[in-house]
Amino acid sequence: MSNSAPNSGWLKACNILSYLFFTSSNLYAGLGGDSIRLGKPVQTYLTPAQWLFGVWSLINFLFLGLLVYQFTPRGGKAVTEQLGWRFPALFVLNSLYTTLFSLQGSRLLNFLAFLVLCLVAGMVSYLYGSLRTGSEPENWMDRYLVHLPFSLYHGFIVVVFFVAAFTVFGTDANTHKAGVVTKILVFITLFFLESTAAGYVFYGNGDIAGASVISLGLLAIFDEQRSSKFIHWSALCVILLMYSIFFVISFIAVLRAVAVAYQAQRSAIPLRSSDEEAAPLIH
């Protein structure tokens, strides 16, 4: 993509315009429209508590800061070189998905919304991967206005993707009891979310923000799912398992660092003694 001033100006203008669509669709889904719950018109056995969707407010606020930051030299470089035209395209796709899912429609309408969500997930993953494999943040604005919102966004989309999948292909918890197949699928999904959160923490330099969003998602599912004791307590067990794994791996890492430091100290002692023996008696 060309980084010329005209193209950069058009990109920044499109970012602002698409952000307005992004925010308006979120407000419509949360406060207006026909849906009772933001992004989930059908109650399933993976539906999280409503408070989880408050993450959208934080993401919207951080992206607003990014739109202001893009008019600085460093912010403009990050937007044009690292995000590009995929950034406003992501806003438009997300707006379409949120609007479709906020409507009390047929299975076909929900399926179309899910297809759009797949495009959103792919776009978010691309931008998230581009930032994670690119240069490290140079200042706090890079960290909190560029990298942080995409970490939160990516982690949130992981949770929303499975919630939407159960909305389209799963059973309605208000009209059907959870069968064996449903319980197995929910448990597998919970375990996958736990594994993904662990991957966020221990891959590369770690991504605490993304892992925290998925952890909140598991906690919200535990909070919401009370009609099935198996699903309710499975969500809690997965959360406890996740933090147990975090503790064990972190503890092993600390022990390994102590052992390496101890070995380095011991290997340094013979070197000092040999140097003293090899030193001449008369200077």
From TrEMBL:
Keywords from the UniProt entry: Membrane, Transmembrane, Transmembrane helix
Domain of life (superkingdom): Eukaryota
Transmembrane segments: 12-31, 51-71, 83-103, 109-129, 150-169, 175-193, 200-221, 233-262
Signal peptide range: none
Protein name, per record: Uncharacterized protein
Species: Malassezia brasiliensis
